[in-house]
């Protein structure tokens, strides 16, 4: 347990490195291979901008910022309320980026239905809906933190679980999007399987998988203070049991 607790800081550092790597890869892909984002049967500059903005908003704006919001409780010093406020603000920024990221797919000439037919698109809509619900719950909980305290304590584990599940779902949705896009490029636009673009997209997928694992592990890792309290309680209970047992033996 002590080894896990001492590994918290290296995990945060690794998560930041993985985040910078993911940001670098998605920026390189979007800027160096812009022609791959030109929609089918469209050559307009506006459609190109919308297509490029979608992966940037969803990966950097939605996944990376929401991951940083999850890690706020691990590295930010200060009171619990301050941490909750920063967490809420970062999640609000991530939600805004996610909504605008989906909004860009509504701007194509092919229409709304043409952009929401695949597993990737369905998962994306579900993920944004769940994320918005989670953020609204956190917002109401922050501004009414003195009310129904017992109820808040009961729903907190579910809030944490759904938050981490939604984050994992967002990463899984991005992975399906990368697979969908790369399959389209290789089959319709003759992008070679061993080309530089294919390597960048595959590396981006691996980077997202690594990042999600580090963020979730850092989030669920026991805190030192909580571990000390738990250990003291367990030690105290064991001491009481031992003393009562000795008294029984004595009499």
From TrEMBL:
Origin superkingdom: Eukaryota
Cofactors (names): heme b
Residue ranges crossing the lipid bilayer per the database entry: 12-32, 52-73, 85-103, 123-143, 155-179, 199-221
Entry-linked InterPro entries: CYB561/CYBRD1-like, Cyt_b561/ferric_Rdtase_TM
Swiss-Prot/TrEMBL catalytic activity: Fe(3+)(out) + L-ascorbate(in) = monodehydro-L-ascorbate radical(in) + Fe(2+)(out) + H(+)
Family annotation (Pfam families): Cytochrom_B561
Main location: membrane
Name of the molecule in the record: ascorbate ferrireductase (transmembrane)
Organism whose genome encodes this protein: Dillenia turbinata
């Amino acid at each position: 347990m002590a080894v896990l607790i001492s590994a918290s800081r290296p995990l945060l550092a690794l998560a930041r490195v993985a985040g910078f790597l993911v940001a670098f890869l998605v920026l390189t892909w979007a800027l160096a291979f812009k022609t791959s984002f030109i929609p089918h049967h469209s050559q307009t500059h506006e459609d190109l901008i919308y297509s490029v903005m979608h992966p940037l908003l969803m990966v950097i704006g939605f996944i990376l910022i929401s991951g940083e919001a999850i890690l706020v409780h691990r590295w930010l010093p200060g009171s619990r309320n301050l941490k909750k406020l920063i967490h809420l603000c970062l999640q609000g920024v991530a939600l805004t980026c996610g909504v605008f990221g989906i909004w860009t797919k509504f701007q194509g000439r092919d229409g709304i239905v043409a952009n929401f037919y695949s597993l990737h698109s369905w998962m994306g809509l579900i993920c944004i809906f769940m994320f918005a619900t989670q953020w609204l719950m956190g917002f109401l909980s922050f501004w009414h933190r003195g009310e129904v305290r017992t109820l808040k304590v009961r729903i907190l584990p579910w809030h944490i679980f759904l938050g981490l599940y939604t984050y994992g779902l967002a990463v899984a949705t991005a992975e399906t999007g990368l697979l969908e896009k790369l399959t389209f490029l290789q089959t319709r636009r003759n992008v070679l399987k061993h080309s530089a673009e294919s390597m960048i997209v595959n590396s981006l997928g691996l980077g997202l998988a690594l990042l999600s694992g580090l963020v979730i592990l850092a989030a669920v890792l026991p805190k030192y203070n909580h571990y000390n309290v738990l250990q003291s309680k367990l030690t105290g209970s064991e001491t009481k049991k031992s003393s009562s047992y000795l008294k029984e033996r004595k009499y």
